[in-house]
Design brief:
Elements lengths: L2 H11 L9 E3 L12 H17 L2 H4 L3 H12 L5 H9 L2 H4 L2 H23 L6 E4 L11 E8 L5 E9 L7 E8 L2 E2 H16 L1 H16 L3
Parallel strand pairs: 1-2
Antiparallel strand pairs: 2-3, 3-4, 4-5, 5-6
């Protein structure tokens, strides 16, 4: 699958990150040093988001601005955007100036927030099943496997987490795997091509342009 095809698939599937009406946690995982186990963390933020949508008429009707506010306030605090952006940018991140890093992070976040928000308005009756944790994982690179069930075939959805003491539950998301495609790797392929062709500033400009197009009413 080429990069553009993979990105298209991700754009159609990103809403599954928060699409579970109920999250069913599987067998108990190993004891973790944080207060909340990573599988319970994924189940909690999924349910909190969906419960908010169910209780708000404007959100249920697909008010995109309100949904974007919900995503930004309720979901994005659980995402380590700096690490995600650095991984997606690749080696060029280290040579980027602090201002370039900030702009890349801000534009990448805007891109993902709008993607999630647009998809949330399409939620129906999906159920997210959180699978038993694999033992012996590194708390800085831990994967929680889930499966989205509803109409049609089940869809694989995995979260890559890191434990960050002092930030809420201690767990932060920094990558997603949708039907076998890791988000960071997919964007890194595209970003690397743009950086190699014209540099960091050209990538930033490309993200700005894409976000402006996405912001226009359908």
């Amino acid at each position: 699958m080429d990069t553009l095809s993979a990105l298209s698939l991700l754009n159609r599937r990103h809403w599954l990150v928060v699409a579970g009406v109920t999250a069913l946690v599987g067998m108990p995982g190993p004891a973790w040093s944080s207060e909340e186990a990573p599988d319970a963390f994924i189940a909690r933020i999924t349910n909190e988001t969906l419960n908010t949508i169910k209780s708000d008429k404007a959100l249920r009707s697909g008010d995109i601005q309100k949904i974007m506010q919900l995503v930004d306030s309720q979901l994005m605090p659980h995402v380590n955007f700096r690490r995600m952006t650095a991984l997606a940018t690749g080696p060029a991140w280290r040579s980027a100036s602090p201002e370039q890093q900030k702009r890349l992070q801000d534009e990448f976040k805007t891109l993902l927030v709008r993607t999630y928000a647009g998809a949330l308005s399409q939620i129906t009756d999906q159920v997210v099943v959180v699978k038993p944790l694999r033992r012996g994982q590194d708390e800085k690179n831990l994967v929680v496997n889930t499966e989205v069930r509803g109409k049609g075939d089940p869809i694989q959805l995995d979260y890559r987490l890191e434990k960050t003491p002092g930030q809420g539950s201690g767990w932060m998301i920094f990558d997603l795997n949708v039907v076998g495609i890791w988000l960071v790797e997919t964007y890194r392929n595209q970003f690397t091509k743009e950086i190699n062709a014209a540099g960091i500033d050209a990538l930033i400009a490309s993200l700005v342009a894409r976000n402006k197009i996405n912001a226009k009413p359908a």
